[in-house]
Design goal:
240 residues, mainly alpha, 52% helix
Length: 240
């Protein structure tokens, strides 16, 4: 009976998350047929947060089932389930990390919603032209880019099985687990694709139309800088 319950559990999860063999899920035709299962108004940071929460719950359940030692077959099935979930979650995160959907606007307002901007292709909209306290010749936007990439890469590492996210392991020392080469290559490619998208955004910011698409359109949402902002003394329309 316990074995049948575990099989039903695996079946329901596989159906909900569209899980399959990793070789099948990694094929181009499978990617085209699978929906993202992510709300359109979400962003990559919230996606990473909730995917890690879900994975932590699954890891905790699987650890408890492993401890019951129901049968070798059940243990093997649970291991395959976790591997499929990790691949699927990394795939979902990568898609959200690089998502390039149209930007929704607030009704009756010309300003752009911050919600979808925390993805690499539209990250340049967060440039508020506030100078950095550590590097006066640069803006805070460069620091935001670094923090964004670091956070997303760390989240991808955790979703790929690099650490145990279950509550039972939270109090223990964070032991790093080996990550399959296929997942490592997937995350590395996503990192560089996101980096290229961020650099493309810098090119757009350096163009003559930058003032009409970024910065001051978000000033009411990200907050005005406190004190004198040295960049306000510069003529951003002057490219010399």
């Amino acid at each position: 009976m316990a074995s049948d319950v575990v099989k039903l559990y695996i079946s329901l999860l596989s159906e909900f998350f569209k899980l399959s063999d990793i070789v099948v899920m990694s094929s181009p035709s499978m990617k085209e047929s699978q929906p993202l299962q992510i709300p359109r108004n979400s962003h990559s940071l919230s996606t990473a947060h909730y995917l890690m929460k879900i994975l932590g719950e699954l890891q905790e359940t699987i650890n408890e089932l492993h401890a019951l030692e129901i049968s070798p077959e059940v243990g093997s099935s649970l291991k395959s389930l976790l591997e499929s979930v990790e691949w699927r979650f990394v795939d979902l995160l990568v898609n959200n990390w690089l998502r390039g959907e149209p930007l929704p606007r607030f009704s009756g307002c010309s300003c752009i919603s911050v919600t979808p901007l925390l993805d690499a292709r539209f990250f340049y909209y967060l440039e508020a032209w506030v100078s950095s306290s550590s590097e006066m010749s640069a803006t805070l936007h460069l620091e935001q880019m670094e923090l964004f990439q670091r956070h997303m890469t760390t989240a991808a590492f955790k979703l790929a099985g690099g650490v145990d996210l279950s509550a039972t392991s939270a109090s223990k020392s964070a032991k790093q687990n080996p990550i399959p080469h296929a997942l490592t290559a997937k995350v590395v490619k996503a990192f560089f694709d996101a980096l290229y998208a961020l650099v493309d955004g810098l090119v757009i910011l350096a163009s003559s139309d930058s003032s009409s698409i970024a910065g001051r359109m978000l000033i009411n949402e990200v907050g005005k800088p406190v004190g004198l902002n040295p960049l306000e003394l510069l003529d951003l329309q002057n490219g010399v």
